[in-house]
Task: structure prediction
Amino acid sequence: MIDVVIVIAGLAGGLLAGLFGVGGGVIFVPVLVLGLGLTQLHAEAASLLAILPTAVIGTWRQIRFGNTDVRAALVIGVEIGRAPSELQSHLNLVCRLL
Result:
C-alpha cells in the first residue's frame, strides 16, 4: 500500500511541479510527512538527496558545454561559506571578551 502512495505522490509531484514551475520539494516534503509519516527532518533530507543527482549531472553538462565559469563559481561559493563563519568567530570573540 505504501508503494502505491509513493508512486502516486511521485507522479502527482512531478506533474504539479512541471505545470506550476515549483520545486518538487514543495509537494514531496508534505506528502512524506503527512502521507508516509516521516519526520520533517527526514522528509527534507530525502527531498535534498533526490535533488543531488540532478544538480551534479546538470553542473557537469553545463561545464562541458562551456556555459560555466568554474573559477568564478568557486570564488562565490568560498565567499558565501566564509562570511557566516567569519561573523560567527567575531561574535564568539566578543562574547568571550564580555
In short: The helical segments are 2-20, 25-35, 40-65, 70-97. Residues 70-97 form the longest helix (28 residues). The radius of gyration is 20 Å.
